[in-house]
Amino acid sequence: MSGVTKKFVLEPERYEFNASPIHQFELARRDFFKILGAGIAVFAIAKDALAAQETPPGHRSFHMEELPKDISAWLHVGEDGSVTGFTGKAEIGQNIRTSLAQTIADELRVPFESVRMVTADTALTPFDMGTFGSRTTPTMTPELRRVASAARDLLIEAAAKEWNVAPAGLVAADAKVTDPASGRSLKYAELARGKTLAQNLPAEDPVTPATQWTIAGRAIPKVDGRAFVTGKHQYTPDLRPEGMLYGKVLRPPSFGATLTSCNDSAAKAMAGVVVVCDGDFVGLAAPSAHEAQRALDVIHAQWKEVPQISSKEIFSYLKQNASAKSDNRNHEQKGSVEEGLANAAHRLDATYNVAYIAHAPLEPRAAVAQWVEGKLTVWTGTQRPFANRDELAAVFHVPESSVRVIVPDTGSAYGGKHTSDAAVEAARLAKAAGRPVKVVWTREEEFTWAYFRPAGVIEIKSGIASDGALTAWEFHNYHSGSSGIETPYVVANQRTEYHAVPLILRSGSYRGLAATANHFARESHMDALAGVAKMDPFDFRMKNLYDDRMRAVLKAAAKSFGWPRKKTQEGQGFGVACGNEKGSYVATCAEIAVDKKSGAVRIVRLLEAFECGAIVNPDGLRNQVIGAMIQGLGGALFEAIEFENGRITNSHFASYRVPRFRDVPEIEAVLLDRKDIPSAGAGETPIVAVAPAVGNAIFDATGVRLNNLPMVPNGLRSA
Amino acid sequence: MPIEIEVNGKRYPVNYPPDTPLLYVLRDELGLTGSKYGCGEGQCGACTVLLGGAPRRSCQIPVSAAAGKPVTTIEGLEIDGRLHPVQQAFLDAGAFQCAYCTSGMIISSVGLLQTNANPSPAEVVQFLQGNVCRCGTHPRIVEAVRHAAKLMQEQGR
User: Which of A207, A442, B87, B114 has the most crowded Cβ, counting Cβ within 10 A?
Assistant: First the structure.
């Protein structure tokens, strides 16, 4: 347990996480059995919360009138044998509804089909900071295992009492408790009947090791799959509560513009239209989407704009405006870089640039808000329901207990749905209208008013000895962030610094955060150094790498890819890159082909070896790994947000190119299952080595080193 | 006289203006929310429906242009609780993650298989080029369409 309950350290680029979480749990114990019916319930208490209490609750006692404030997960076994797990995590396409249910079924010894998950509802689930940072598997999986294990113990104790025998000899399996001595058995449903038995448990409780999993570790298909292929699943934009109006927001012409005048009389005169002009916010609600659009079109607003820099000058701006003081949390220094460089046989310095990119989730930001007697309910696709709740409470000056945020399983996020923009807009309009209001952002709004993965500049100075061993490594990241900033290679002399720059465009999390930028720079640079050392890129990495898990994924990728490969055609190139982040390890190999005439780069084959400890669901994991590889190709090759004077100039799918079917190469994921290592998350790390592997392959084919992401927005002209 | 459209075998009077995109009539007026808004510009395919049997971006079609032609949405593929082979194939292949693109992918694929009963992987890729999947599930979608072609041949559809 100790390895997986490690306190989560926030990366500095997560600017939006500064607010400290306010722990609260809405549901009192007496209400809870009313909602779910009688049965057995177990609550997991967060480890830190226990330490803070003077008298920790006993293992087998539950005497509180209300639920403890720091519950992290809980579980209920009903009188019909149905099992319900509760977590504040959200399902956003990463398949946790399935993997968490597997975990509970595995530990409780019940069929997978009998487990239902209630997720991301601030009134029904325990507080959760958010679904990000690849934390669901390493933190929520063990929590749910602990509650399931405790529930199993309770059921065994109930059976022991029934039969008047010692619990030690009884066996729990197949949703029943059996006494092997007498052959008697009782179903969980029978044991739960008529009981309202609740217990909380301490932070540690022994759980089943991965080597003995039976339901976890298997490729179980996504739950509710049928609802998705039939169109029955309702995402936030599909909700239509009785009497609902359609909301629209009048956006400023550019970032930072302030409203100087607003004539909304024509809009207000339209039947059924409610207009809100409040500060710089101008929005309205109407009985239909087309009436809302028509009303929006007749509002005459004037804005005061401010001059702003453009994407053309962004990289020089970032360097010039960087804070001279590096961020302390990411200042790593060992030995003397100056000495290491002086003693190097070869030196190599380079600068790498990374453009802003957009998440472009296919379900745009959306929310449905409803006020009833001063209480607000909001349905919204967010990764942070509790933070959204707190923000709504603050904005509308109501207690948090008056706000409920519910997250329907969401049409993806990739780190892009942390903020509560659409929720606040819908709630503001619903308040004015006195009816439920739905706000669904247009694609243009999504590309413009969401937030971006920040641009960055990375500078590296390095030196190697004549045998290829690294002697010096100096790494500066300006603005893009510090995830994955530290080199996994062994270097006696190193300095690593992150330099903050005031925000230019609204920026925030993106799958893998800055780990993609930092890996791109580091792994491109390592490739270039291998060239200087006249060594094979794979051998050069292995020479400077002592981490066994990293070496294992590199070897696995090389073996499956057939590294080193001989070129058989003109324009062919092969590249490799590796990395680790958030407790998991990845190595990626790429084969590319450059068309000499047009300069077009085609990815022929992409292979990745990935290791995240014990695998919970190999099928879901494969989907996540392959998906991250394909998404990573976009940022590697052609995705870039273009902006000028506070306007996004490519805010459409026609002008902002995302990977499509034709961009997808022959693709393969090699999954290493380490049952001896606690499961880590897998949503992010598989993306980090894609860009450098591709870039290194382009270099192999052409001799041209591309130091900017995206690498070939218009093909490789210089080839 | 209001426009009338036929969706999944049922006739509906339309009260929205004739220039309203079909997608909004389906979703907001008829409550058929299986067809998704992804861009409103015909660039992502999430809103794809069959119009007179052919896959079309419903966000780009004024409802008046849909009058007189049968419309099939994702809700109309399942018959008497039996999934369409393409739906079954997507389910079998696990060809979705967030699944927001799935109804558009399935409807487009049904359209493809009506004109090409046994498409090659390259033909599937070519046909689905206009459908965006942001989760990167493309290889499984291609696999699902090929699997669906087999299922349809077996069922004599």
Answer: B87
In a domain, A314, yes or no: no
Domain B85-154, CATH 1.10.150.120 — does that match?
A: yes
Is there a single domain that holds both residue A593 and residue A492? yes
Prediction pTM value: 0.94
Cβ proximity of A44 and A74 under 8 Å: yes
Provide, as residue numbers in chain A, all residues whose Cβ is less than 8 Å from the Cβ of B112: none
Same-domain pairing of A186 and A268: no
CA B81 to chain A, closest CA, distance in angstroms equals: 10
pLDDT in tens, A284-296: 999 999 999 999 9
CA-based nearest residue to A450, from A390, A504, A506: A506
A288 and B106: CB-CB below 8 Å? no
Whether the complex's predicted ipTM is more than 0.85 is answered with yes
pLDDT of residue A50: 40
A362 vs B78: CB contact, 8 Å cut-off?
A: no
Are A229 and B128 inside 8 Å of each other by CB?
no
- Pick A240's closest partner by Cβ from B31, B87, B101: B31
Euclidean distance between CA atoms A316 and A301, whole angstroms: 35
- Are residues A435 and A537 both part of a single domain? no
Closest by CA position to A519, among listed A604, A607, A590, A588: A588
Q: Nearest chain B Cα to A442, which residue? A: B39
The tally of CA atoms less than 13 A away on the side-chain side of residue A550 is 20
Report the chain B residue with the minimal C-alpha distance to residue A668. B139
User: What CATH number does residue A130 fall under?
Assistant: 3.30.365.10
Instruction: From A440, A461, A476, give the residue that closes a domain.
Output: A440
Radius of gyration of chain A (CA): 27
Q: Does domain B3-76 have CATH number 3.10.20.30?
A: yes
pLDDT of A617 reads 97
What average pLDDT does the structure give for chain A? 90
Asked if residue A492 lies in contact with residue A471, where contact means CB atoms within 8 angstroms, the answer is yes
Percent of chain A with pLDDT over 90: 83
Domains of chain B, residue spans: 3-76, 85-154
User: A222, A257, A277 — which closes off a domain?
Assistant: A222
Q: What one-letter code names the amino acid at A333?
A: Q
CA distance A682 to chain B (A): 14
Q: Which of A95, A230, A412 sits opposite B100 (nearest CB)?
A: A412
For A232, name the nearest residue in chain B, comparing CA atoms only.
B34
- pLDDT at res. A100: 97
More confident position, A66 or A221: A221
Is the CB of B142 less than 8 angstroms away from the CB of A238? no
Closest by Cβ to B97, choosing from A95, A360, A363: A95
Give residue A258's domain range.
Answer: 236-305+365-440
Q: For chain A, how many structural domains are there in total?
A: 3
Pair (A433, A458) in one structural domain:
no
Residue contacts between A and B (CB atoms, under 8 Å): 166
End-to-end Cα, chain A, rounded Å: 52
Cβ contact B139–A225 (<8 Å): no
The string of pLDDT tens digits covering residues A300-338 is 999 999 999 999 999 999 999 987 766 656 677 899 999
Beta carbons within 8 Å of A73's beta carbon, 6+ residues apart: A43, A44, A85, A86, A87, A126, A140, A143, A144, A146, A147
**Residue A315, both tokens:** 């990289």
Which residues fall within 8 angstroms of residue B152, CB to CB, at 6 or more apart?
B85, B86, B113, B117
Q: Find, in chain B, the residue whose alpha carbon is nearest to that of A408.
A: B98
> Searching chain B, which residue's CA lies closest to the CA of residue A221?
B94
- Chain B residues whose beta carbon lies within 8 Å of the beta carbon of residue A654: 41, 43
Residues of B in Cβ contact (< 8 Å) with A94? 97
Give the whole-angstrom CA distance, residue A513 versus residue A9: 14
User: What gap in Å lies between CA A442 and CA A422, rounded to an integer?
Assistant: 11
